[in-house]
Amino acid sequence: VSGANYALGGSYFGHVLPLADDTYDLGSASAAWQDLFLEGDITLTDAGSISTSAGDLTITANAGSNDVIVTGDLVPAADDTYDLGTTAAAWQDLHLEGDVLMTDAGKIATSAGD
Nearest-5° angle of CA 65, CA 67, CA 72? Predict the structure, then answer.
């Protein structure tokens, strides 16, 4: 219904579609939805992003495999800025194939006991 505000409750059976393509939002910065429960795929039809305005963005994998599968390059937003892991949360193993390039005067070292 155009131009009117409605409060809906209960269950809805069917598709919820906008009146025009690429025009309307679901929620806003001042009136956000709490949680989103989905089953199936999430498809962004334009170059979009998934972000958080506060805290960390956590991606949890299926409990059966514990894998997050990336089908493209994993590239940081800025050069020479971000780390992979921390001293308190280190990656366990690193599996690489092909060339390993260090573009700065870095080093590969082990700590005591390794």
Answer: 145
Residues in the chain: 114
One-letter identity of residue 92: Q
For residue range 22-45, list pLDDT tens digits in order: 899 888 889 888 998 888 888 888
**Half-sphere CA count of 35, side-chain side, radius 13 A:** 2
Residue 2 predicted with pLDDT over 60: no
CB half-sphere exposure, 23, CA atoms < 13 A: 5
For the chain, how far is it from start to end, CA to CA, in angstroms?
A: 66
pTM above 0.70, yes or no: no
Interatomic CA distance for residues 61 and 63, integer angstroms: 6
Separation CA 90–CA 63 (nearest Å) = 21
